[in-house]
Amino acid sequence: MVRFNKCSRSLLIISLSGLNAPQKQAAEVIEGPLLILAGAGSGKTRTITYRIAHMVDNFHIDPKTILGVSFTNKAAKEMRERVVTLLGRRRSRGLTLATFHSLGVKILKQDIDKLGYQKNFSIYDTSDQLALIREAMKIYKADKSFDRKRVLMKIGQMKNKGISSNDFADSPYFDDEDPYDHVTLFAYEYYQDKLRFFNAIDFDDILFLVVRLFRENPDVAKKYSETFQYIMVDEYQDTNPLQFELIRGLTMTHDNLCVVGDDDQAIYSFRGADISNILEFERVFPKAKVVKLEENYRSTTPILQLANKVIAENKARRAKTLWSQKASSQLPILWKMADTDHEAAVVIEEIVQHQAAGKHLGDIALLYRSNTQVQPLEEQLRLSEVPYAIIGGQKFYEKKEIKDLIAYLCLILNPADQISLRRIFNIPNRGIGTVTLEKFLKLAEEKQLSLYQTLINFPDIAEKRSHSVQNFTQLIQQQRESFSKRRLPEAIQNLIEQIDYLKFVEKQHDAPKQVERRKNDIMQFIESAERFEKYHGAGGNILKHFIERLLLQDSQDNQEEEDDHDDDVRKNQVTLMTYHSSKGLEFPIVFMIGVEEESLPHKRTISQGEDISEERRLCYVGITRAQEKLVMTYCKERKIYGKMVDRHPSRFVLPFLEQGLMLHQDRTTFGHLSVEEAEKYKKDFFQSLMDDLES
DNA sequence: TCGTCCGGCGTTTTT
DNA sequence: CGCCGGACGA
User: Fold this and answer.
1) Footprint on protein of nucleic strand C, Cβ below 7 A
2) pTM (2 d.p.)
C-alpha cells in the first residue's frame, strides 16, 4: 500500500493495518470485479468501509464516483456513519450510499418522463395494488376461488425477473395449462395500464422502470455508468434478476464492481432473490477475484461449531467454515417445554433472573420464525414488567389513519391518482358510496378522463349527491393551495381540521384506548412532517419528497430518529423479532423460540414439497446472532390458531444434540435443577400462575 | 348507504 | 383464536 504524508490539516492517513489478512486483501482490490464472501460476523462492514476510505484517501478517487448500494436504509446509514468516522465529513462528501429503491427513485425523478409517466407519480403499496387486482379480476369475471394475493405475487415475480406484461405470455414462466397464469396475464396487463393512467408506480416498478429505461435508452444507462465508476453491492445474495440487470447497466462502461455477501444467509428467495447471482459470480465476471472472510469476531467457538454443522447439510453452497478465537465451555442448549405458555413463562423467568442480577436487558434477543409466536411471550413480559421492544409488525404508514392522510396528500399532488381518490372519496363519510362512484367511473371510462377530472366536469350526474361531490373537489383544490402556501406540518394540521378527521376516528371505534392510539399516530404523523421539514428544508417539492420518504423508509428508522445519539448503546429492553429481521444484528444472549418441525422448517415449506434449504439458512442466521449464550426451545404441544397440536424438535438441530454439540434440558420435569432448586422453582412458578389468575 | 354478521384463512417481507 | 372481506338486511 502506498503511504504518503498529506497536508498537515489531514487528520490521518487511512491505514489498513487494523484489518486481518483477507479483509486487507479485499480492501486493496479497487479495480475490476471482486466478490467478498463474508461469513456471519466476519467484519464485513468494517472491510467495505475501510475499502472506501482507502480508495478516497490513498488513491485519491473522487467520492462522487463511488456508489454503494444496500437493501435497507439502516445499512446505508450505518455505512455512511462509519465512512465518515474514518474520513471525516468533508472528505466523504459526494459519496452515494443508497438503497436500491432510493437510487431507483433518484433516477426516475430525472428520467421517468421518457417512459410516459409524469414526475409527480404516486407510489402504491400492497393494499393499493390489491385494490387494482380485485378490479381486474372482477372485469375478467374470474372465479372467486382465485386468490388475489397469489396473482399479485406472480406479477411481482415477473417484474423482478424483468418480464413485462407484453412478454409474459411468451416467457417460460407462462403455463398455458395453468388457469392462474391466464388470470394473471389479464390482470398484469390491466394493472399496468391502470398504473400508467393513474400516473402511479409500485415498489417493484421503481426498479423495473429503471431497467426499462436502461434497456430503451442505453445512453441513459451510459450516463449513470460514467458517473459511478466504482460500484459496491451489499447483501449480494439477496439480489434478484432485476437488480442484477440494474447493476449490469451501471457497469456498462467499466467492470469496477465489488459485491459482498454470504450465500448461507440468503433468506429472501420468496421475494424473488436469486442465490445464483452470488454462486455464479465468477462465471458472469471471469476476471473476478474472490476473497473469503471466515474469521468470526462475534460468537464463541461452540456456537460456531453448531452453526457450521447445521449449514453444512445444505448442498448448493460455497464451502465456508467460520472460526473464532473466543473459546468457551458453554454449549448451546435445547430446552424442552410443555406448551407455549410454559415456554414463555420459563424463558421470561430466565430473563427476570438476568435482570435481577443487575445485567443489561439489551443483551437479550428472542427470535422466532413467525410473528404469530409473539403473543404469549409479550403477555408474559408484560406480566413480569420486563421492558421489551417488538421489531417489525405493522409499518407506520400501513396504519389505516396514516394511509388515509397519505391518500389525501397523494391526490393533492397527483390528481390522476385514482386509487388514492377512491380511498378517501367517502372518508370521512360524505354520503358518496359505491353507486355514485360507479357512475363516475363509467363516465370517466367513456370520456377517457381521469376520475378526478370527471368529478369536476360532470358533478351533476351524481344527482342528489352532486353537491357533496362539488364540495369534495373544492376541498382538494383548496388544499392544493394550502399546501403550496403553508409549512408542511401546518398544512397537514389544517387538512385534518378541514375534514374533521379526528371526529371521524372517534366515530369509527368504540374502545377509547383504540381512539387514543390512533389519534396518537396522527400526532406522530404531523411530528414526522415537522422533523422532515426541519431536516429537508421547506420549499421545492417538499410534499412529494415527504411522501416518498414515508414510503421508502423502514418503520424502525422512523422511531429511532429521536434518540439517534445513543445509537451504539442499546436500550435496557429485551428485543423480540423474526429471524428475517435479525439478519446483521448480534446479541450476547439469544433465545430461539420454537425450534420445531413445522415451525422451523415452516409447515408451508414442507407441505409445498419445496426445498427446505432456505429454512435451514434461517436457522443458521438465528444461531449466528448469538455472541455468548444460545438457548433454543421446543414445545411438546403448541396452540396454533386456537388448537393444540403435537410438536417435535426441528430436524435442523436434532442430529447435533446426539453428537453432543448441544445440551438438552427437559424443563417440563425441572430436570435441569437440583431437587431443592426444583422444589423452589415449582413453588414460585405456581405462585406466579396463581397471581396471574387473580389479576 | 351503512352497519352487522358469518365464513374462510392464517410465514417470512429490508423497499 | 382473531382478522378481513363479502353478503345481506335496515
Assistant:
1) A 127, 130, 134, 144, 641-642
2) 0.88
